[in-house]
Amino acid sequence: xxxxxxxxxxxxxxxxxxxxxxxxxxxxxxxxxxxxxxxxxxxxxxxxxxxxxxxxxxxxxxxxxxxxxxxxxxxxxxxxxxxxxxxxxxxxxxxxxxxxxxxxxxxxxxxxx
Length: 113
Description:
Blueprint: E1 2-6, E2 18-19, E3 22-23, H1 31-35, E4 38-43, E5 53-58, H2 83-101, E6 107-111
């Protein structure tokens, strides 16, 4: 099963869209960027459950200066326009979970935009 990963700058974890001024495609940024620096994944908390639950976690990378801001934000308040993207991706995420549950490998393919 194929998966996609955004291309990063050589030798770093920074995406090619990251410029000195910030995100070069901010208005049209992908869902992963809208969530950043908040990680999101779905999983089945109970074995053999069909219910997928959202799990969130903080991603800390040196190039993200937002971690230096003295603030606390709840998941609900971390609105970045992700609802419509989450809704479109929900079926895909469930398919990925089913494949992972079947112990199949998901490989990353790199693409430039």
